[in-house]
Amino acid sequence: MVLTHVEREGVQIAAERIRAAIAAQRFQFDGIEMKLTASFGVACLSDGEALDFKRLVERADEALYTAKRQGRNRVEFAAPKVLQTV
Prior knowledge:
This protein is α+β, with helices and mostly antiparallel strands and about 90 residues long. The chain has two helices and four strands. It has a single domain (about 10-75), classed as Reverse transcriptase/Diguanylate cyclase domain (Alpha-Beta Plaits). The mean pLDDT is about 90.
């Protein structure tokens, strides 16, 4: 999912609402009730950072794997990119 013109706090709220809604649902499969959880990895552009969609997705993917290692069913943010000055 791509969110634009949103501060980190807004992204956190949106992702947590989606995560909680998924976790609250119960699904039936072959007569067995199942529950599902979701983990989210989030990457944001820093001020002045050029858009590199491939790298942004890679950072979000890294954050997703951190969420999985940290116990799943959570939202993790990628560390902000440090901009180098010349």
